[in-house]
């Protein structure tokens, strides 16, 4: 069993000993780095968000929905409304669509953790596919709120799958995506109100978290269930690191009295495994990378990957411009008159 602090040895009297305040100072980011470098951390899990829950009022996405004449703002993310009126969602999807942003330091830090043999899995609430762009693959990810990476026909009798590029072409050409096979609507595999979270989320968490050696939680308020409950699924000896702009996920004292555990404990006299690093996700990951001796490697990885993405974008835009120009040119050429016989 691992704890960041060493409890004082019990005296002859069998009384519970509470760590002294100076001992609790070992609950630091440096302690996490030492643990990762110790060789004992072979099964690390990350729980990430980093962007607001795309379905939640107050995220800014709802501010521009009045023009769609919705019965209420949340309707745009309700599956029953979508099946009858898909136009508002696909209009909004242009703003949500992946490819408009690059992965950041925290995404590439997770890729480094994977490459160095530490990361077992990343559980994310994000739907933007940036973890995949950074180099994590399907087996490395549990996308709890779904993803734009794949789409499916909504018909239960069909369920044909479509890829990211197919859906992108439809959305940006202002076409309502319909199935090539049955003509039903096709929806990105993001979780709407009225839909269940992916089955893989529930099956994987039961197998994954009991064997977790270190849990890193980033950029989430830990308020949305069942995602928030993941922190309580690791063993009681598993250290947990929160990188966030404020402390989150702390145990409710009332729940403690009722026997429900699992919440984070950063400040009490009994705190022994939870570390809060108050910063942005990128700043926290860069600080941890520096303590691990990976800072230069991480910065170089970000630089190279961003250059690759920029180069790819330029090629795609140039190709798109040539295609549009050729199409316009062919349309502007008047057909030759037919010769009379």
Lateral strand order in the biggest sheet: 3-2-1-7-8-9
Number of discrete helical segments = 10
Q: Structural class, from secondary structure content?
A: alpha/beta
Classify the beta-strand content into a percent band. 5-15%
For the sheet with most strands, the description reads:
6 strands, parallel
Order of helices and strands: HEHHHEHEEEHEHEEHEHH
Unreliable stretches (pLDDT < 50, length at least 5) are: 5-25, 51-56, 255-260
Distance between the termini: 95 Å
Gyration radius (Cα, Å) is 25 Å
Task: Give the strand tally.
Answer: 9
Q: What is the average per-residue confidence, as pLDDT, rounded to a whole number?
A: 80
Shape: globular
GO molecular function, one term: zinc ion binding
Cofactor: Zn(2+)
Active site: 145 (proton acceptor)
Enzyme class: transferase
Structure description:
Residues 306-319 have a biased composition (Basic and acidic residues). There is one protein chain. By secondary structure, this protein is of the alpha/beta class. The chain is 33% helix and 13% strand. The protein is built from ten helices and nine strands. The strands form two sheets. The chain has a six-stranded parallel sheet with strand order 3-2-1-7-8-9, with helices on both faces. A three-stranded antiparallel sheet has the order 5-4-6. Helix 1 crosses helix 9 (281-292). It is globular. Mean pLDDT is 80; it is low at 5-25, 51-56 and 255-260.
Keywords:
about 350 residues, alpha/beta, six-stranded parallel sheet, three-stranded antiparallel sheet, 10 helices, about 35% helix
